[in-house]
Amino acid sequence: MNFAISLDNNYVMPCLALVTSLLENNKKNDCHIFLLTDGLTEDNVGKFRRLSEIYQQTIDIKIIPQALYQSLPFYKRYTFATYNRFMIADLIEDSKVIYLDGDIIVRHDLSKLWNTSLDGYACGVVEDQRGDDIFVHNRNKIATPYFNAGVLFINLDYWRQNDIGQKMITYLKEHTDTCLFPDQDAANKTLSGKVKYLDFKYNFMEDWFYPTSEWQIHFSKWDRILADREDPYIVHYCRGLKPWFKECVHPLKHEFIHYATMYDFIGYSVKLKPAMASKILPPDNNQTNKNNEKGITDNGHCLFGGRAGTESACI
Question: What is the pTM of this model?
Fold first, then answer.
């Protein structure tokens, strides 16, 4: 099974917890994890290497030059890592991959999801917790159910054949003002009518743990959501108060902490939630120079791990 996770040095701890949860619950499966990044420090690369060694699974670090995204909008909440999924079909030479956001844990074996057919579809998705919010649809004139881009079961062959990544980038460049959730809005518009809707348990979002009176999704879907709430396979902490913040009240916060504290090197600590900034941040022109100080560079990638007997190497 292939998995892809996008991150930078600021999101290493949550992603280490995610990878731990994924590998803990998929020990019977061969897992190949791709980390999509513009660069990680040697220390952070070492942490993922340790997980690779513990679970005898492969973790492959793919470098994406920031220059590819210079013309796209950046906010404190939406950084270069937000857009890495756009390039996923060019980076992973396989037929399919499960993309996961960094604020997620995996609670069960995902082989049934992996074996779901994607014939004729760009990807498998789960409808967003605001999937029937008319303002979300009207903003970009999206006529199909609005999905969440935090979990994408991607048909890579379809993406390559139809140049999906470039189409999403083009749409975002041309509609920056209407894309409140940049990558997600672009994905919904570009892939409208081309996705397969999966069970809610494969991307169970935070709103659905609270009373239905607060939900922004049609009541006809409530029974299925409530049934999946009993035992979700993938939990997505997609509100602003993440489970590593003291103020977080998510009912499954303790499960994130369980995985985040399994190994000391993950570096979990309780934090206070900073004020959210909406100011646009300009591209960091010094980033290329900073990459020279990191453990991996813009023209290489690091591969390590695998099942027993697989050679580890950094190239």
Answer: 0.86
